[in-house]
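hey can u check if this looks right to u? its 194 residues, i copy pasted from the old doc so theres a chance i mangled smth
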Amino acid sequence: MFSASMLRTAAVLALPMLAAARPLPEAKPHVIDKAHSEINFVADSRMLSAHGYFGKWDADVKIDAANASASSVAITIDAASINTRVEMRDNHLRSADFFDVAKYPTITFKSVSVTSTAANKVNVVGDLTVRGVTKRITVPATVVFYEKGAGRFRGQFTLLRKDFGVTYDSAVNPIENEVQVQWDIALKEPEPVK
């Protein structure tokens, strides 16, 4: 028969295996609060700074509050929903000169890593696809707050539009290559199904 000390030793040796067998906590899915979320941009040209936004988009966000690196985000934007508050300009932006929405109806971003850089800062590295061109970018994010499964995240970064094949220019009103992107997203865990 086994002695008490042998059983205790066996139990201690088994603990790491039992811990490894338990599933690790997973990042939890969150839903976007559309009323408090937006994706905006500013494109500068000689004659003005065009401020715009995308009216239709969605996101698949998973957050692990205890381990940022387990979090992820995937965003899909309806390119035709671009809005700079000037219909003629918006129609031009939808054309083949710019976003060519008939051929490339969506703009997508899919994260490959999330890294904490400070107490309320993270860097989201991911693949951005515009006009069928994919580039890896880093999106810095500020965690405004996150508590009880709900939060707000915001940030801004610069894109070079010509890197994504958006190369149209005007001799009369040349457009800067740099486009400022500003985003502000509120989200929460989904309500339990009743």
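The chain is about 15% helix and 50% strand.
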